[in-house]
Specification:
Shape: globular
Distance between the termini: 15 Å
Mean pLDDT: 96
CATH topology of the largest domain: Quinone Oxidoreductase, Chain A, domain 1
Low-confidence stretches: none
Radius of gyration: 19 Å
Number of helices: 9
CATH class of the largest domain: Alpha Beta
CATH superfamily of the largest domain: Medium-chain alcohol dehydrogenases, catalytic domain
Strand content: 25-35%
CATH architecture of the largest domain: Alpha-Beta Complex
Helix content: 25-40%
Largest sheet: 7 strands, mixed
């Protein structure tokens, strides 16, 4: 079978499209025939050296967001049967024709979504869910600022927040305003034309997916006792400095949350925008697109049609 692997860290030159043996599932695992896989910044960051900092061992088989069908069951698996369509996130190996995954990390694919659409959802939706609801405790009527509202995570965060009844202020570049408002955003800030911290104020929650200077300035938009959760920055002493809560979200597999997310997708309340679909062999081109940071929505690899 085909898979994407790195044997050393570096740029796209270290990314290899190789033949490997098909794995077999062990107790509590399933073998998934991959139809589509999501490409995320964490994938090329692992390639560039993040894998070493995370304690991963080379060689590393890349890819963590998948949609496919159950090909084989390991011992003890009763929640799925062969042929079931599933989606979810896994630690590694998703950029391949087949992958072994823990059955408890997966959920049934929403029936109204094809595999491409389904593979565009798990990582972004789980990250947004765990950031806004588990950590920041976002609730109906609260004011939320999302620092990048048009990306793969931010666009899903806008929709999830609106379903909850929050008032959403979305940041982005002017060309993305119509798109972000179509997702349900109440207010829009063009960060290129104005200092967002001078416009947004008294926020209950900030969800940051940008980091750097944006992360630092976002604290100025919070009311006292508010909460900032980031997917990219590393908080230090900001909680004491600004009198707010702060945390970093570390997205984890959660089948129960995927079921709830899937129900929203089934009813049309949650949609992922697909920016590009490339074949598995064109992983380097997919990484180039992702690293460029100019895409609206999600980049997908189509593995099996």
């Amino acid at each position: 079978m085909k898979a994407i692997v790195i044997n050393q860290y570096g740029n796209n030159d270290v990314v290899k499209y190789v033949d490997i043996d098909r794995p077999d599932p062990h107790v509590g695992e399933v073998l998934v025939k991959i139809h589509a896989a999501g490409v995320n910044p964490v994938d090329w960051k692992i390639r560039s050296g993040l894998g070493q900092r995370l304690g991963m061992s080379l060689p590393i088989y890349l890819g963590g967001e998948i949609a496919g069908t159950i090909e084989k069951l390991g011992d003890g698996v009763s929640e799925f049967k062969v042929g079931d369509a599933v989606y979810g996130i896994i630690p590694s190996g998703g950029f391949a024709e087949y992958v072994v995954a823990k059955a408890t990390d997966l959920a049934r694919k929403p029936t109204k979504l094809d595999f491409i659409q389904a593979a565009a959802i798990p990582l972004g939706a789980l990250t947004a869910w765990q950031a806004m609801f588990d950590l920041a405790k976002l609730s109906s009527g609260q004011r939320l600022l999302i620092t990048n509202s048009s990306g793969g995570v931010g666009s899903l965060a806008v929709q999830l927040a609106k379903v909850t009844g929050a008032h959403v202020t979305a940041m982005g570049s002017a060309p993305n305003e119509d798109y972000v408002r179509s997702l349900g955003a109440d207010d829009f800030i063009d960060y290129r034309s104005q200092a967002f911290e001078c416009v947004a104020h008294d926020m209950d929650v900030v969800f940051d997916t940008v980091g750097g200077d944006t992360f630092e300035r976002a604290f100025l938009t919070l009311k006292k006792g508010g909460f900032l959760v980031t997917a990219v920055a590393f908080p230090k002493d900001e909680a004491n400095k600004y009198g707010v809560g702060v945390a970093r979200v570390h997205c984890k597999p959660n089948a129960g949350q995927l079921v709830s997310i899937g129900e929203l997708a089934e009813t049309g309340k949650l949609k992922a925008h697909v920016a590009a679909v490339l074949p598995l062999a064109e992983i380097k081109e997919a990484f180039d697109l992702s690293e460029g940071g100019r895409t609206r929505g999600k980049i997908l690899l189509q593995v099996i049609g």
